[in-house]
Write a structure and sequence with these properties.
Low-confidence stretches: none
Strand content: 35-45%
Shape: elongated
Order of helices and strands: EHEHEHEHHEEEEEEEEEEEEEE
Distance between the termini: 18 Å
Number of domains: 2
Mean pLDDT: 92
Radius of gyration: 21 Å
Number of strands: 18
């Protein structure tokens, strides 16, 4: 029977104690005869220590950002240096296949998007069965990853150049309302074709564009421009809000995301 490690991330006071779903998941593993260890990580170094250990990993995540924190450290551990690139690594990949993980959902929107098991017993069953699905992720030149998607923009229009492969969606001269870089989440109005396993990223920008009404009068409207590709670069003119996998921040200079096709895997 397999060893299993249940990892919880501690992001503040009171978060270090195992929560009810973690205990229920542990009990389900034990009932199936598995050897289970629980761990709490408060830093990247503590996540690294868990990744070095044996057993199948289950991440008890309370947000997309917590889940990506673990995947980011997995990439750091597994990605080769440019000078040590394996000969068998596909030309369109910068990281080899990451080991599969289980995801115990405690508030992770991505679990619903990927249609993963939700309750603790189902998660334990999936991990022990060993069946996995591989999904794309986006790496970026900020040293992180994006599993779901990123949204650039806030309450005020902003200017930015947005380029997908060789297609320019915005040249920086027009005020944008928002820019979306999507890997998994679909938006009916912005990124309806986003697919976490198709090997391409979806990008959309929205900007104000007056439209001519029935009687020839111009009224406010919105224009959406879309593109799909392997990489996207966003170059803001000034500092602009950024929400990446649910984590809020700001974008102050050029940020490039690129596709890592089928790089990570989840027990399903």
């Amino acid at each position: 029977m397999y060893d299993v490690v249940l990892l919880t991330l501690d992001d503040g006071p009171g978060c270090a104690r195992p929560r009810v779903p973690v205990l229920a998941c542990r009990d389900a593993f034990v009932a199936a005869g598995a050897r289970v260890d629980t761990a709490v990580a408060r830093s990247d170094e503590e996540i690294d220590a868990v990744l070095q250990g044996p057993g199948r990993l289950v991440v008890a995540a309370a947000s997309d950002a917590e889940l990506r924190a673990v995947v980011r450290r997995m990439i750091r551990r597994n990605a080769p240096r440019a000078s040590q690139r394996p000969a068998d690594l596909p030309a369109d990949r910068t990281v080899p296949d990451l080991p599969p993980i289980g995801v115990l959902e405690m508030g992770v929107p991505l679990v619903g998007t990927l249609d993963l098991p939700r309750d603790p017993e189902a998660v334990a069953k999936a991990v022990l069965a060993g069946q996995v699905r591989r999904f794309d992720l986006l790496r970026n030149d900020g040293g992180s990853v994006t599993l779901d998607g990123a949204v650039v923009g806030g309450d005020e229009p902003f200017a930015a150049r947005v380029e997908v492969d060789d297609a320019v969606l915005a040249d920086g001269s027009e005020p944008l309302l928002t820019a979306v870089v999507a890997n998994a989440s679909r938006s009916a109005s912005l990124t309806p074709r986003a697919d976490p396993a198709d090997g391409v990223l979806d990008v959309a920008v929205a900007l104000e564009a007056p439209v001519r009404g029935r009687w020839g009068r111009r009224r406010p409207g919105i224009e959406v421009r879309r593109a799909r590709g392997r990489a996207v670069a966003v170059v803001p003119r000034d500092e602009v809000p950024l929400v990446d996998d649910g984590a809020a921040g700001t974008l102050t200079h050029k940020r490039t995301w690129w596709m890592a096709r089928a790089a990570w895997a989840v027990y399903t």
